[in-house]
Design a protein that fits this description.
The protein is an alpha/beta fold and 288 residues long. It is built from nine helices and eight strands. Bound molecules: adenosine monophosphate, zinc ion (ZN) and fe (iii) ion (2 copies).
Length: 288
């Protein structure tokens, strides 16, 4: 069983449509894929409608959170997408991404970059708009050679010259909301230092005590030593350990299935969830 529990489609900052993503997941030999767009579940319906036989879809989202001024991401799986409290928080964060993107564009213009909202809106389409869309615009304009080169202090990194904050949820609130919606939470890339400041271990311990289910340990942004440290932290705190690609299509160079989750851990996530269930693909039209 090959299980990848963290991917992005064009419903946020990935480049595959949800339908392309599930087709690519099957072609990559995955048995289970989770669709976890930033602050959005809008890609789920199209992914379900296109789900190939032999591939199971886990519905999810990656929630933008912040604690003590440090931004962090919380993966949420198999929650009820219609549960009103989590839905309204998710929409609040997603909708605040628009004025926030406009603020970053304003800062870039002030720095002399001829970027416009129209350009970024064209790149983002109807997605949950984020820095990778702005980074793509900067690549188009020849300001930086690649999307990742836009994530520096000079440009869009946390606290960078053109960075602006968006509304982000307190992670304790996120854990509580996801649980109340029948879902399971996994702290995404908890030690990805290249993304900026990371959350200290005592906060991870407090999140575990508050009901956090797991840590995403096997992630491209963690080196071998970091993975070992996180694995032992997870063991100490009784947290599940997951691995995933954090696939973004062509916006990052990491393929689907680059990292995977142990089938027993996946089974435990499914066992804990009550808000939604994994959907096995039939390869035919979804009628339910
Ligand atoms: P946002 O949610 O708009 O704040 O943008 C954050 C997203 O940007 C992350 O989820 C990643 O997909 C992407 N990102 C963050 N840091 C980097 C980086 N160093 N290189 C490339 N992409 C990054
Ligand atoms: Zn992303
Ligand atoms: Fe993330
Ligand atoms: Fe992600």
């Amino acid at each position: 069983m090959r299980i990848d529990l963290h991917t992005h489609s064009s419903a946020s900052d990935g480049t595959d449509t949800p339908g392309e993503l599930v087709a690519n997941a099957a072609a990559a030999g995955l048995d289970v894929v989770a669709l976890t767009d930033h602050d959005s579940t809008r890609g789920h319906a199209a992914a379900l409608a296109a789900l190939p036989a032999g591939l199971t879809l886990v519905t999810g989202a990656e929630l933008s959170c912040r604690i003590d001024g440090v931004s962090m991401h919380m993966l949420a799986y198999l929650f009820d997408p219609a549960e009103p409290a989590l839905l309204s928080e998710r929409e609040l964060v997603r909708d605040d991404r628009v004025p926030r993107a406009q603020a970053m564009i304003g800062k870039l213009q002030h720095l002399g970059v001829p970027i416009t909202w129209q350009q970024v809106a064209r790149i983002a389409g109807d997605a949950s708009v984020g820095r990778p869309h702005i980074a793509t615009a900067l690549v188009e304009l020849g300001v930086v050679p690649t999307v990742s080169d836009a994530f520096t202090e000079d440009w869009l990194a946390d606290g960078g010259r053109a960075h602006a904050e968006k509304h982000e949820t307190d992670p304790f609130e996120a854990v509580r909301l996801v649980k109340a919606a029948g879902g399971v939470t996994v702290f995404a890339h908890p030690a990805a230092a290249k993304r900026g400041r990371t959350v200290p271990e005592d906060v991870v311990a407090r999140l575990a005590a508050a009901g956090l289910d797991g840590l995403e340990v096997d992630h491209a942004d963690h080196d071998a030593a970091t993975r070992e440290r996180l694995r032992s932290l997870a063991a100490d705190l009784g947290l599940l350990v997951t691995g995933s690609s954090d696939y973004h299509g062509s916006r990052k160079d990491i393929p689907l299935g680059a990292e995977t989750t142990d089938p027993e851990v996946y089974a435990e996530i499914v066992r804990r969830a009550t808000g939604a269930f994994p959907v096995p693909g039939t390869g035919g039209p979804v009628t339910a």
